[in-house]
Amino acid sequence: MAQFVLHKGNTRGHANHGWLNAHHTFSFANYHDPERMHFGVLRVLNDDSIDGGMGFGTHPHDNMEIITIPLEGALAHKDSLGTSSVIQHGDIQVMSAGTGVQHSEFNANADQVVKLLQIWLFPNKKNVTPRYGQITLDIAKRHNNFQQILSPEPDDAGVWIHQNAWFSLGTFDENFETDYQIKKQGNGVYAFVIKGSVTIDGHELSTRDGLGVWDTDKISLKFNTPDTEVLLMDVPMEL
């Protein structure tokens, strides 16, 4: 029988640093809840707004798969691998931190906020050679469809990571219904509502709510409002 965990948007950890307004679905920085440490290998789901010209100075990571999904504005990235890039809505960025990498992230614009999701997954291989990846996707292909944006395979759609995980993004019309088949036995799926309202297996979710589902091979979704946008993260449940 399917198991569920529901995280309402207003129950997330919250830190407002003035230049940074951050919401944490799982324990992060000064927010700690022993009941919300991770969902399978999904360790961090941060929903950040960064003021114009501000950002995170150079800092280290290791042995983590880090995915950044810009929702609004543009984010400038530099790292110790020699990468210097800007990502914006429609782009997906990934870093395999592996043996260690340092990077900085700043709002690329002085006059507008950048909004983004930053997601960390535990890798299935430790101490890999650090790497950076970035792609631009056709957002139009997400209309009433879950567009794959991440997978374990370099030759598959989207970016790839060192983990048996698949991410998909879609934007759906009101009353549209669909099923999502979980990609690998033993995986669960964590659904995060970027905007709008959706009912997943009888659970009604609104903007910035999250629902984790496991011990099943599919989920059923019905979209309750126009232009409902949902991110699905299909991840191994065992660390």
UniProtKB/TrEMBL annotation:
Pfam families, sorted: Pirin, Pirin_C_2
Homology family: Belongs to the pirin family.
Q: Keywords in UniProt for this one?
A: Iron, Metal-binding
Species of the source? Pedobacter nyackensis
Q: InterPro entries this protein is in?
A: Pirin (IPR012093), Pirin_N_dom (IPR003829), Quercetinase_C (IPR041602), RmlC-like_jellyroll (IPR014710), RmlC_Cupin_sf (IPR011051)
Annotated protein name in UniProt: Pirin N-terminal domain-containing protein
Residues at which Fe cation binds: 59, 61, 103, 105
Every copy of the Pirin N-terminal domain together lies at 14-121
Q: How is the cofactor bound?
A: Binds 1 Fe cation per subunit.
**Keyword Iron, does the record have it?**
yes
- Highest taxon, organism lineage: Bacteria
Task: List the molecular function annotations (GO) for this entry.
Answer: metal ion binding
Quercetin 2,3-dioxygenase C-terminal cupin domain residues: 149-235
The cofactors it requires, by name, are: Fe cation
